Amino acid sequence: MPNIKIATFNINSVRIRQDDLIAWLEKDGIDIVALQETKAQDKDFPLAAFTGAGYHAVFKGEKGKNGVAFVSRQPATEVSFGLTAVGLPDEARLIKARFGDLTLINTYVPQGREVDTPYFQYKLEWLRGMRNYLDKGFSVAEPLLWLGDLNVAPEAIDVYDAKKLYGQVGYHPAEHEAFAYTKAWGLEDLFRKHIPDGGHYTFWDYRVANALGRGIGWRIDHILASPSLAARSADAYVAVELRQTERPSDHAPLVVEFSL
User: Fold this and answer.
1) Any residues with CB less than 8 A from the CB of 202 and at least 6 apart, and which?
2) pLDDT score, position 129
3) How are strands ordered across the β-sheet holding 188-189?
């Protein structure tokens, strides 16, 4: 089977950026992209644009916030949504699907807003809930990916200034602990497998002037794999050009190539 490319991208409104996304999918030869923050109710998702370009799409959305989707060259099967099985609300934050023998779990983890608020505690519950979700429904022996905007920078090299940012939402020890707990189910960070050095980010805040050009970024989007699938990963990169378009998302896609 030829190599395939799988990406994750917080698109921050699929209707605004569908044309840029489709052009990039074609240019980079992406086979599957997991989208977050689509910000479109299901009736408003631009399905026709993707099918017209030769892609399939499955999705769940909410008006003006959240929203997750897969856009792919081959149709998804066994599609399901949400973390209700482990006691968390049925928001549009998780979509699971199979593509051949691969299982992909695409999540948009809550941002957490401010430390010492219920929103931050909910984020920690959500991250730990993912471990329970994996324990209940999956085997570490199967080829599985957990990918998406996970809203955690796990290491010092994943933020532009670790000393300044330590303890803030997104780079907080409680988040690191919750993220590590879920990752310890048996998942490997594929970007770090192939790119061990720092200075590579997936998010640059709109509110910071020329954040991309100044390197003021965070690596909070991730693709994590079970051992059998991690062994088949061949390369990883961040598609920074989508952060440089006329109307960009504040994120850029993260891509992993697999030899399947």
Assistant:
1) 217, 218, 219, 220, 221, 238, 251, 252, 253, 254
2) 95
3) 77-81, 94-99, 102-108, 144-149, 221-225, 188-189
User: CB within 8 A of 116, min separation 6: which ones?
Assistant: none
State the Cα–Cα distance between residues 177 and 91, nearest whole angstrom.
24
Which tokens sit at 221? 């989007």
Average pLDDT on 217-238 reads 98
Residues contacting residue 70 through CB under 8 Å, at least 6 positions apart: 32, 33, 34, 35, 57, 58, 59, 76, 95, 97, 104, 106
Query: CA 12 to CA 23: how far, in whole Å?
Result: 17
| pLDDT tens digits, one per residue of 160-177 | 999 999 999 999 999 999
Token digits for 114? 């401010």
Sign of CA dihedral 199, 203, 206, 207: negative
